[in-house]
Design a protein that fits this description.
Layout: E1 3-7, H1 11-23, E2 27-31, H2 34-39, E3 47-51, H3 59-67, E4 77-81, H4 86-95, E5 99-102, H5 106-118, E6 129-133, H6 137-149, E7 153-157, H7 160-166, E8 174-178, H8 187-197, E9 204-208, H9 213-222, E10 226-229, H10 234-248, H11 267-270, H12 275-285, H13 290-297, H14 301-315, H15 320-328
Parallel strand pairs: 1-2, 1-3, 3-4, 4-5, 6-7, 6-8, 8-9, 9-10
Helix pairs in contact: 7-8, 12-14, 13-14
Amino acid sequence: MPKLLCVEPSATQQAIIRGIAGRHQLEVIVCKGEAEALSLLDQQFCVMLVANELQDGDSFQLIESVRLSLEHATLPIAFISGSVDRALAYNAMNAGATEVFMRDDLSALDEFIAGCAGAPLESFESGGTVLLVEDSESHAEYVAHLCAMLGLHVEKCKDVQTALNLYRPRKYQLAIVDVVLNDIQSGITLVRRIRQNHQSRQPILVMSGYDDLPRRLLALKSGADDFISKPFSPEEFVWRVKKVLRSYAGHDRRETALPLVSEAMGHDFMHALSPREREIAAQILAGSSDKQIARDLGISYWTVRSHIEQIFTKTGALNRRDLMARFIGK
């Protein structure tokens, strides 16, 4: 039976969570503080709920500690607050919470838990070799370390020509390519050459310290499967690697692909957003208000606002009108 980890000192709230989880066939493991919660993380959970006020320790620090673990980098974490406090919600999202809920918003929490219970635990087949094209020794070591923790062997090189000499279809499970290399040719050139010269559609993850939309769009148009901006956190790297590898393995792309409001909206730009951000962006472009989005998606208003701020940051839009002007030409 899938497990839910509930970090909540209130016996009343624990009982409420047990009732919700029971309806979705989840086993509930309860603890009251940070230290006890961390000691339980050797178990597999499909979702974690963290109360704002713990019996001991700090809720934000607990969430950050969970996110530092590669094994739980993609674990859904709901932060439960008893007050409408935007700063509190922002701090929780910044620490790594997936969603923020009011304590009395039981219907939204129920939908969130149902979604986590309905999704199978994320599996990942270790093994395989990664071609890493990165001219920074320190960053290459960092990426290689993260790949090793995922069970992936890494072959490193520093320039486009060496990478082309090494690359063979089906030789690598994944290629990770930096855009700016100490070379005349860029990483985007490598992506384009691989796609033009080989029939293989094995995934390519592009990374860059320059997170500008034209560069991101060019990488995706050239054939990259995803784009990650440096510096990136371990949890974001793990999520993106797993996503592109799952897509190559033939998993249903509809699991993460969301319906767009218009064909003119610009899929490549939407690809820069996370699945939840794409879902919210589609609702914005359909004219839904923040409160309506929160009701439709079963998440809190403050969670919606935090996601919208990230959407504006990633797309370069100044506001809702600017977002619509950029992507649907109105």
